[in-house]
């Protein structure tokens, strides 16, 4: 009995540790969006204008969204071990719709600070919620092994749709872009506003479904040593697969790499794979190292891993609070910098109180990121302990 409990505790801790590290890195990207001088106007992956420091600041955050999807699928498997298929399905579907509602109401406002919601964003919570709905439907009817196969089929095969050309602005073209291929789909509204789909649905659902299937390695009766070996093997295969396929420059990503005028830029071009939607190369590049990290952190218990775990236990709470904190801090900094109300709330701004020419250097942006992460440690710790004590049904949706 003691061995089983210890294994279960360390297993959950490793998931929360990796998820917490991902959340910390994720915050860097959002702080850069609001505080870096080029956050509103530049593309950190554009090799013609970026710098290595800015490129890798953006590149390291590529690990966040797919890893969060994969770990959400893995957590869904573990949380449903003692539930019926109907119970698991109902919870995932309800939570999926709840996350989409949160995206529309709370995350859109956190982005824009626009009380009129002239722009409605469907971003990561839309993809996460939609993927949960897809997973919830699959859980009701098929086995975890079948879900794993379906997830891998989506991950491996969705780039085939890159070669499908439909007539632009037709219903079929719009649906294809929203659910499979879009790099960002802008839909005007009759009231003059807009709906923007920043994330597609099914390629991300494939990653979550693969994570759900991966959960079979974490069953209570699974051998921890075998699990570690398999995680290392799968992670290594994915990483090698990325390198080999990327060198070939064939199927797996719509943006091939090319030789540049310097070695570092050529290396950056090689790593500059497509996130919107997540290409096969993108998924292999990010999830290979994450699975290796998951294997190595299963028994890790040190000061840094415990700090990461604090954030990893409350991902929804951190995500919501950190966005509002970042935007409020931006608002204060903008007015302290001398901008007028009119400049800060101009109709051309997607993000109110974030003028396009506002911002700081990359080094200063890093300092702000660190301060925000530190400031949220104690609220996250309190909320994590509160959830552990209460365990009421509604807290499972938060």
Automatic annotation (TrEMBL):
Entry-linked InterPro entries: HGSNAT_cat
Keyword Transmembrane: yes
Keyword Transmembrane assigned: yes
Location of the Heparan-alpha-glucosaminide N-acetyltransferase catalytic domain: 11-222
Domain of life: Bacteria
Keyword terms: Membrane, Transmembrane, Transmembrane helix
Regions crossing the membrane: 60-80, 92-113, 119-139, 196-218, 230-248, 276-296, 316-338, 358-380
Protein name per its UniProtKB record: Heparan-alpha-glucosaminide N-acetyltransferase catalytic domain-containing protein
Organism: Dyadobacter endophyticus
